[in-house]
Specification:
alpha+beta, 3-stranded antiparallel sheet, 5-stranded antiparallel sheet, 36% helix, 6 helices
């Protein structure tokens, strides 16, 4: 039985395995699948293997990671989850789903992003969560804002011009409201 970290309707987030490298490389080899990365359209096997390796390491070290998104019947849909941001020492939430998945369920990114933020604050003690969004990714900006994140700053992160959005934990929001 595979560990399910999060269920969002018919989508399940489960740990990656080393056998998933080809799935990641294929996802990030098309321009749309690459909108959330800095691979251009040249995601190598080494790049994909590093995404899987770092996800497994983060899961082991932190208790959360980027997870593989699968359907009820186990079909690979993309990935979603959390990544440490070395430039800011924060945790970022993100997802990557191909066009055919978005065409079948256009509301999935909004539901998934909200479920991820809720999961994060229910399962960690972090005071806030960020979303690092490429400046040219309008779809992701809309999803992030609809989930309750606000724009904090623009900066280069991992070689990519990005906007950093932030959401405070419910306890931090309560604290600030009472101050």
């Amino acid at each position: 039985m595979q560990t399910i970290f999060l269920e969002c309707g018919s989508v399940r987030l489960v740990p990656f395995s080393p056998a998933d490298v080809d799935l990641i490389q294929n996802l990030h080899s098309d321009p749309y699948g690459n909108r959330c990365t800095d691979y251009s359209t040249n995601c190598t096997v080494m790049d994909a293997a590093e995404l899987v390796r770092s996800s497994l390491q983060n899961q082991n070290d932190l208790g959360f990671a980027k997870w593989k998104a699968v359907s009820d019947d186990g079909l690979f849909l993309g990935w979603a989850g959390f990544t440490p941001v070395s430039e800011t020492s924060e945790i970022s939430v993100n997802y990557c789903l191909p066009n055919d998945v978005l065409d079948r369920d256009p509301g999935l990114p909004k539901r998934l992003f909200k479920a991820l933020a809720d999961w994060f604050f229910e399962n960690t003690y972090f005071s806030h969560l960020v979303a690092v969004v490429r400046t040219d990714n309008r779809d992701m900006r809309e999803v992030v804002r609809n989930a309750g994140f606000y724009h904090r700053e623009s900066k280069v992160i991992e070689g990519m011009q990005a906007d950093v959005f932030q959401m405070l934990s419910p306890s931090m929001q309560s604290y600030l409201m009472s101050a």
